[in-house]
């Protein structure tokens, strides 16, 4: 294993905290202990780790970024819905490890948690009522910045986009993207990100849907793909996370 791979593998382990094995938290995990398989698959809410997406999904971020770099696909990386910032921290680490100095990592989040969903005809969003858990999910922008600093990765290649996506994304100063990662859980959050950011995704770039297993998120993805005639093959990192590569 070369130095780049060793560094990025270690970053994955630290960001997911599979090293110290912190227990999960939240309404579904409060009385459970650390489970290696759940953590590696991004199936719990860690109490300490800086990301909840798991090892496989971080590896997917690495592979997508390294592929666009190898192919010369222009554009930045963005994640919409960052929690403690771990996935964006990892994306910045990938760019640093490859000596890339001309691409930005965009960190888009309300930094207040999940919005309370209006009655928009998507009852699954209401059923989840994730805003009730904003004590766990609402991480401040200053805390996310502090987490970047822990890895010496907060620099001028990291830009924050605070606010609800319906407000922050339409006029976001993002010019071109090579990797677009959506982790907003809800129908509205997913549709807002696709509507305002997918047109900025370069041909050959990737869109990653972290919450594809959530029916409301899946509905938004398929509605958008059908509306714009997107037929690029859906691939799966695991049963809950899908992605595709833009062909045109």
TrEMBL record:
This is Macrocin O-methyltransferase. Gene3D superfamilies: Vaccinia Virus protein VP39 (3.40.50.150). GO terms for biological process: antibiotic biosynthetic process; methylation. GO terms for molecular function: metal ion binding; methyltransferase activity. SUPFAM superfamilies: S-adenosyl-L-methionine-dependent methyltransferases. Pathway: Antibiotic biosynthesis. Keywords: Antibiotic biosynthesis, Magnesium, Metal-binding, Methyltransferase, S-adenosyl-L-methionine, Transferase. Belongs to the methyltransferase TylF/MycF family. Coiled coil: none annotated.
């Amino acid at each position: 294993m070369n130095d780049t791979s060793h560094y990025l593998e270690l970053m994955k382990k630290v960001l997911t905290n599979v090293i110290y094995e912190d227990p999960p938290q939240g309404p579904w995990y409060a009385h459970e202990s650390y489970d290696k398989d759940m953590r590696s698959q991004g199936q719990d809410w860690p109490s300490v780790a800086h990301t909840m997406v798991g090892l496989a999904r971080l590896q997917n971020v690495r592979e997508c970024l390294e592929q666009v770099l190898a192919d010369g696909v222009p554009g930045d990386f963005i994640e919409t819905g960052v929690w403690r910032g771990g996935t964006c921290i990892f994306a910045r680490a990938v760019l640093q490890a490859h000596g890339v100095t001309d691409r930005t990592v965009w960190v888009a989040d309300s930094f207040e948690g999940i919005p309370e969903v209006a009655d928009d005809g998507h009852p699954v969003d209401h059923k989840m009522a994730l805003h009730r858990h904003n004590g766990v999910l609402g991480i401040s922008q200053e805390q996310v910045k502090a987490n970047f600093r822990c890895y010496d990765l907060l620099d001028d290649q990291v830009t924050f986009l605070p606010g609800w996506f319906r407000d922050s994304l339409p006029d976001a100063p993002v010019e071109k993207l090579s990797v677009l990662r959506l982790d907003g859980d809800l129908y509205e959050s997913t549709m807002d990100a696709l509507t305002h950011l997918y047109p900025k995704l370069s041909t050959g770039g990737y869109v990653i849907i972290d919450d594809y297993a959530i029916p409301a998120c899946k509905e938004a993805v398929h509605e958008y793909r059908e509306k714009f005639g997107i037929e690029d093959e859906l691939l799966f990192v695991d049963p809950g996370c899908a992605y595709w590569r833009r062909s045109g």
